[in-house]
Amino acid sequence: MSGTAEDLIDRRRLRRKLSFWRVAAVVFAALAVLGIALFSSVGGRSAFSTRDQIARVAIEGLITEDQELLDLLEKVKDEAAVKAVVLRIDSPGGTTVGGEALYEAVRAIAAVKPVAAEVGTLAASAGYMIASGADHIVARRTSIVGSIGVIFQYVDASQLLDTIGVDVNAIKSSPLKAEPSPFAPAPEAAKAMIRRLIMDTYEWFVALVAERRGMSLAEARVLADGSIFTGSQGLERNLVDALGGEAEVRRWLEDDRGVRKGLKIVDREPEEEGYVSLFATARTMLFRGFGLDPRAASLETALLRKVGHLDGMVSLWQPLDERAPLR
């Protein structure tokens, strides 16, 4: 019995020790993550912000009205230590309003310091709209650029509703209210209304490209039929200024715009307001791990961005079959 009692006591002591070290390990890991977050958001970025640099801002994925990104662009515009800005664009486009807001933010930066756009895989539609706000566009030979245009899509589910026996009734103040509707075929007046809306935005987009790329409106319209181009084709058509990557961007900034040689290119990201949140840091790491937008404020928002939830008119390149190989 004494041996059994001693064994029980030893096991309890061992459990206490294991519990202590488990708790200590969790606390240490939490403090480590918090310390890294504090350094990167307070120490690291603050230190960078007081040192002369070239700020690089990523514009990726579907473009929406992103206030945090707009705030970041405003910040790098006003920072005296930022001598130039590089926009790293990899986007199929998005809402025209989101593209317009970012384009205007880019032009505000260009009014006070050099701005270059470095195209990754894709800068199409609203993505190209934003790139055109830069003073110099660099793309890879096989990058995709263009898709200048606007689209408004709606669903006509009236046949499906008829099949399952569902009637949708509405009392409206006027015939064009809430048209086009997914519950009935769109009347011709509604189609004409949407076309007027689309063409007004399209003409603005074409004029923007013509002005920024030094073309006539006629030349811009030839390119604004929704076509996409490789980087090399874009260079031939004056949609791109040079082929290459970071080295070409740096060469232009230093040789053509007089930016001091050797400045560090610092990746800048939107920051959390107020204090650094451990949970926000963990959330960002989790979203990145699953390929979701790390800037999303919630899982729901991240999932919606992932599947491309957009409202209103969009300037968005949409391949007919995403499974088809690019040629």
Automatic annotation (TrEMBL):
It holds the Pfam family Peptidase_S49. Coiled coil: none annotated. GO terms for molecular function: serine-type peptidase activity. The keyword Cell inner membrane does not apply. Gene3D superfamilies: 2-enoyl-CoA Hydratase, Chain A, domain 1, 6.20.330.10. The chain crosses the membrane at residues 20-42. Keywords: Hydrolase, Membrane, Protease, Serine protease, Transmembrane, Transmembrane helix. Residues 110-259 form the Peptidase S49 domain. GO terms for biological process: proteolysis. Belongs to the peptidase S49 family. PANTHER family: PEPTIDASE S49, PROTEINASE IV. NCBIfam families: SppA_dom. This is Signal peptide peptidase SppA. The gene is sppA.
